[in-house]
Amino acid sequence: MGEEEGRSDASTDSPYVWGLDPIDGTANFVHGVPLCGVSLALLQGDRTVIGVISLPYLDLHYSAVLGGGAFVNGKKLEASKTAELSKSIVAIGDYALGEDAADKNRQRIALTAELAAQVERVRMFGSAAHDLAWLAEGRVDGAVVMSNKTLDLAAGILIAREAGALVLDSSGDDHTMTSAHTIAAAPGIAEELLSLVQSVL
């Protein structure tokens, strides 16, 4: 299953499906911005069991196996210990394009305004792979994506969780492939960040 080519059912008997996003951060790539990468996930039903993100321009390569921890270039990852939203850096997903973009972006702009008032810094990297990998590494303390595209997020969600981050949907339940939104955070700020997101929905 690939973001660009759709699903290939070479073996329909297997409970496993590989999901590939060959360029996460396509607009960055096209414009020569080195914040883009490859995201690969092995899915078993509705859960990710292996996740790999490669950020080739930065020579950073992340991986996780369900229950086995998360790593970058062979080094074990641990999410941020930040416990105050006001001292956190939070990454947000891109604004919407195309049909209904204006309606979707009203919510995203409201979220940006709330975050700007309550966190230390807001960042928009233009790549969900970066958002979640850097959350796992502790470079950012939270990441909010106002959508849920499996191929963009599956590998990063596993890597973030295996590093100790919480990944929730907007109701506060564990994030799944059917969740409408993606709220990922260091445990110490997850509740505050979730409440902030809920306030703009």
CATH level-1 class of the largest domain: Alpha Beta
Structural class: alpha+beta
> What amount of the residues lies in strands?
25-35%
What is the CATH architecture descriptor of the largest domain? Answer: 3-Layer(aba) Sandwich
**Major sheet size, sense and barrel closure:** 6 strands, antiparallel
In short:
The chain is an alpha+beta fold. The protein has helices at 26-30, 101-118, 128-137, 150-162, 190-200; strands at 16-24, 37-44, 47-55, 60-65, 70-72, 75-76, 89-92, 121-123, 142-145, 166-168, 182-185. It has two domains: 16-76, Fructose-1,6-Bisphosphatase, subunit A, domain 1 (Fructose-1,6-Bisphosphatase, Chain A, domain 1, 2-Layer Sandwich); 85-200, D-Maltodextrin-Binding Protein, domain 2, CATH 3.40.190.
What does this entry look like structurally?
It is a single chain. With 201 residues, the chain is α+β, with helices and mostly antiparallel strands. It folds into two domains: 61 residues, 2-Layer Sandwich (Fructose-1,6-Bisphosphatase, Chain A, domain 1); 116 residues, D-Maltodextrin-Binding Protein, domain 2 (3-Layer(aba) Sandwich), CATH 3.40.190. The protein is 28% helix and 27% strand. The chain is built from five helices and eleven strands. The strands form two sheets. A six-stranded antiparallel sheet has the order 1-2-3-4-5-6, covered by helices on one side. Strand 2 and strand 3 form a beta hairpin. Helix 3 packs parallel to helix 4. The two termini are 31 Å apart. The model has no long low-confidence stretch (mean pLDDT 93).
